[in-house]
């Protein structure tokens, strides 16, 4: 395993305990990570906002947080709902890496666990391993059905794939756009399916910039050339419309 140059890394620490964040930040700086390349978030929601404006190389994240816990944050990331790449290295900080969490983390392609309180040597080892391993294939549409079991997940993701009523005449008019014409945040007027017929995103979901880029970059895999979106300027422009 080749050693990773730590002074070049941009690292995000997500934990609801200020002391834990401070200890890890100090440990990272002692390893050579530059202070201005260490970002901190006290919960998953704040981390999501930061991941939309900051490019990072790896996330170190607590599991137990409210209302969005670490598993929910990783799922959001893997589904392409941030501006960072969906296969970003991601290591959990946990005082209890029980079997259910380990299995779920594996399904979401996490890069391991560091037991809290974190020891600097373990933190450094986990970073080196995560940054050196082969990354999972970029496929943000394959993680929607991985249920984290939280209320957040049921509210945000669970309703997307419930049995939906047929399109009614009262629904907004739709327009068919080429992939390059679709704006991030556009709401789907029809189910989005791959060329093989697999459901990628259901009607009513909005599509993110990362997901659009993936559809363009991997056109042979998905075979999506055009998308039906709701003909509503308000839906496309209003950030309060659910991203998912």
Structural class: alpha/beta
Q: How big is the Rg?
A: 19 Å
Level of helix content? 25-40%
Largest sheet: 5 strands, parallel
Q: Overall pLDDT, averaged?
A: 88
Strand content bin? 5-15%
Contiguous helical run count:
9
Helix-strand sequence: EHEHEHEHEHHEEEHHEH
End-to-end separation: 38 Å
With strands numbered from the N-terminus, the spatial order across the biggest sheet is 2-1-3-4-5
Domain Response regulatory: 10-131
Keywords: Phosphoprotein
Protein name: Response regulator
Pfam families: Response_reg
Could you explain how this protein is built, in words?
With 244 residues, the chain is α/β, with parallel strands linked by helices. Helices cover 33% and strands 15% of the residues. Strands 2-1-3-4-5 form a 5-stranded parallel β-sheet. It has a two-stranded antiparallel sheet with strand order 6-9. α1 links the parallel β1 and β2. α2 (44-53) runs parallel beside α3 (70-78). It is elongated. Mean pLDDT is 88; it is low at 234-244. Keywords: Phosphoprotein. This is Response regulator. Residues 10-131 form the Response regulatory domain.
Helix-strand blueprint:
Blueprint: E1 11-14, H1 18-31, E2 38-41, H2 44-53, E3 58-62, H3 70-78, E4 90-94, H4 99-107, E5 113-115, H5 120-132, H6 151-158, E6 174-178, E7 192-193, E8 199-201, H7 209-217, H8 219-222, E9 226-230, H9 233-237
Parallel strand pairs: 1-2, 1-3, 3-4, 4-5
Antiparallel strand pairs: 6-9, 7-8
Helix pairs in contact: 2-3
């Amino acid at each position: 395993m080749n050693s990773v140059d730590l002074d070049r890394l941009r690292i995000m620490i997500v934990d609801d305990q200020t002391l834990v964040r401070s200890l890890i930040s100090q440990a990272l700086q002692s390893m050579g990570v530059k202070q201005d390349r260490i970002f901190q978030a006290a919960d998953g929601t704040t981390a999501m906002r930061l991941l939309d404006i900051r490019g990072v190389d790896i996330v170190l994240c607590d599991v137990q947080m409210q209302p969005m816990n670490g598993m929910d944050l990783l799922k959001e990331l893997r589904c392409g709902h941030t501006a960072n790449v969906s296969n970003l290295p991601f290591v959990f900080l946990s005082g209890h890496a029980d079997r259910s969490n380990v299995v779920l983390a594996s399904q979401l392609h996490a890069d391991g666990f560091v037991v809290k309180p974190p020891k600097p040597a373990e933190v450094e080892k986990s970073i080196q391993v995560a940054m050196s391993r082969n990354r999972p294939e970029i496929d943000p549409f394959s993680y929607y059905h991985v249920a984290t079991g939280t209320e957040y997940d049921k509210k945000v993701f669970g309703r997307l794939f419930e049995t939906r009523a047929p399109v009614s005449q009262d629904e907004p008019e739709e327009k068919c756009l080429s992939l390059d014409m679709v704006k991030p945040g556009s709401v789907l007027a029809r189910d989005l399916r791959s060329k093989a017929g697999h459901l990628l995103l259901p009607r009513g979901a909005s599509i993110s910039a990362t997901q659009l880029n993936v559809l363009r970059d991997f056109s042979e895999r998905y075979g999506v050339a055009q998308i039906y979106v709701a003909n509503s300027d308000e839906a496309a422009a209003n950030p309060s419309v659910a991203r998912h």
